[in-house]
Amino acid sequence: MTTKIIHFMVNGMLEQAEFGADCSAADVKDVFRAAAEAGPHHILKMYSMNGSVMNISPRLEANSRDSYYRLEVVASDLKSVGMPNELDTMEHRLNHLESKVMEDVGKTPDVVCELKSQVESFKRKLESVKHLSWMGLFKEDSDHQLSNLSPKPKSSRLSAQEQRQQVRRKFLNMSSLHVTEEVREHLKTPIFDNWQWEEAEMLVLLQVMFIDLDFLMAFHIQLDVLQNFLFEVYRHYNNIPFHNFRHCFCVTQMLYGLIWLTDLRSKISRIDLLIMLTSALCHDLDHPGYNNVYQINAQTDLALRYNDISPLENHHCAVAFGIMSKPECNILKNLSSDQYKHIRGGMIRCILATDMARHNDILNKFRSIQPVFNFTNNEHKEVLMNIMVKVSDISNEARPMAVAEPWLDCLLQEFFNQSDTEKLKGLPVAPFMDRDKVSRPSSQTSFIRFVLLPLFTELTKLFPCLEKHILEPVRRALEYYSDLERASKQEQEGRSTAGGGGEGGIGGAQEEIV
Ligand SMILES: Nc1nc2c(ncn2[C@@H]2O[C@@H]3COP(=O)(O)O[C@H]3[C@H]2O)c(=O)[nH]1
Ligand SMILES: [Zn+2]
């Protein structure tokens, strides 16, 4: 049977489809619709190399990789309110509505005025860089009023794939806009508030990090390849409570901040900075929300594949290099093979080092070299790179309280999901994940005392300037959670005295149960 191959570019990727001689128009459309990750309400358009529109049908002519077609998804009416032409439609409808109501009632109702001002304000945001408050430090109050108009409620009806494509379109639309100096500077600090930013904006900010560290120039990374890579990274994070794309962004942003605060650019090579930043980005790719202990106990595919040795971290790293195996996403494609080998080795080490089962080994190693630390010693440098990524990975408590606290809820939610499943399956349950045993304060006091403070203190010995940026906030968090823990104990004691002995909780543990 004869077949023909159609090469086409969609969402920045060069794809190909093979059609048999007997396929129908609907088959052809379905193939392109799937490739474009488009929903039934989207209109597809195919363009030839010279820009003319082609009919999407079995009669499409076969072509080559060099003469590919361009497939575009066009959002149908009001499916993407963020686009200016749809805003115009909405404004037009509002004006029409206003004139009709004026005829009937004689005055414009408040609700129409309100809607008009929201449309106007949103239009201003899109049209003028100056008004891009979403590229400013903090969102304006008007954003909250805008939530009814923004695409969010609509997007909740979109499939996950459609939502991701919407993020891609927004990211690409925004990426050419100017990100203010104020934001760029703020991005270099641990007080940056990740909760202010939506996914497409975080992608823009990640792009800014690559640009401001001069990676594009130094490693000949084309902007579209970086954008494809960042989007694929985003696409490979799962929608789970903690180990999601926002966590990836936070870890990368903290690492970026540490690079600037410690002036690391003057101490280690740019290629090593690229290794660290890219490792931070990729360090939890495709995390399923269940940790290594679960993977091993439940004998999951990952545990089988990696012989129980850091199954998750091995997987995150393999997914990262899988993404980069596509030329259109390969930010390393213009490097020499020696440079590539160096980066691959460095990333594998950094990502595998995020397995907390190896925490003590890595910290002890760093402790032993810290007094004689030498930036020109490769072994020292590699340990430091692992430490920097690890510090960033567990740095939520180094952030302002209002930023850190919601992360604890996300983490506990993921822990509880896991322990609930473990209980159902009869698998061992770690006490720190058990909703019947853990409390917010006890979880944090132990983690800060036994994990964060020892690690952050050691890094601060090498970079004393970090004391105020990461060590002090963590000490304050320990005080805060210790106070809460004490207060909760006193309250429990008061209750058990008043109640004549209480109801026999868990092993006498007097903790605030989450
Ligand atoms: N209790 C507590 N654990 C944390 C916090 N941040 C990170 N962790 C843990 O540290 C681990 C680092 O590796 P993982 O991402 O596998 O899982 C993370 C959590 O188990 C925190 O703020 N509190
Ligand atoms: Zn992580």
TrEMBL record:
Keyword Chaperone belongs to the record: no
Pathway(s) this gene product operates in, as recorded in its UniProt entry: Purine metabolism; 3',5'-cyclic GMP degradation; GMP from 3',5'-cyclic GMP: step 1/1
Positions with a binding annotation for Zn(2+) 1: 247, 283-284, 393
Group of enzyme by EC: hydrolase
SMART domains per UniProt: HDc
Signal peptide range in chain numbering: none
Keyword Nucleus annotated: no
Cofactor note: Binds 2 divalent metal cations per subunit. Site 1 may preferentially bind zinc ions, while site 2 has a preference for magnesium and/or manganese ions.
Residues covered by region (Disordered): 488-514
Location of the PDEase domain: 162-488
Residue sites binding AMP per the record: 243-247, 284, 393, 444
GO MF terms, alphabetically ordered: 3',5'-cyclic-GMP phosphodiesterase activity; metal ion binding
Assigned keywords, A-Z: cGMP, Hydrolase, Metal-binding
Annotated active site: 243 (proton donor)
Residue numbers binding Zn(2+) 2: 284
A GO BP entry: signal transduction
Cofactor: a divalent metal cation
Catalytically driven reaction(s): 3',5'-cyclic GMP + H2O = GMP + H(+)
Enzyme Commission no: 3.1.4.-
Gly residues: compositionally biased ranges: 497-508
Family of this protein: Belongs to the cyclic nucleotide phosphodiesterase family. PDE9 subfamily.
PANTHER family, per database record: CYCLIC NUCLEOTIDE PHOSPHODIESTERASE
Stated role: Specifically hydrolyzes the second messenger cGMP, which is a key regulator of many important physiological processes. Highly specific: compared to other members of the cyclic nucleotide phosphodiesterase family, has the highest affinity and selectivity for cGMP. Specifically regulates natriuretic-peptide-dependent cGMP signaling in heart, acting as a regulator of cardiac hypertrophy in myocytes and muscle. Does not regulate nitric oxide-dependent cGMP in heart.
Name of the protein described by the UniProt record: Phosphodiesterase
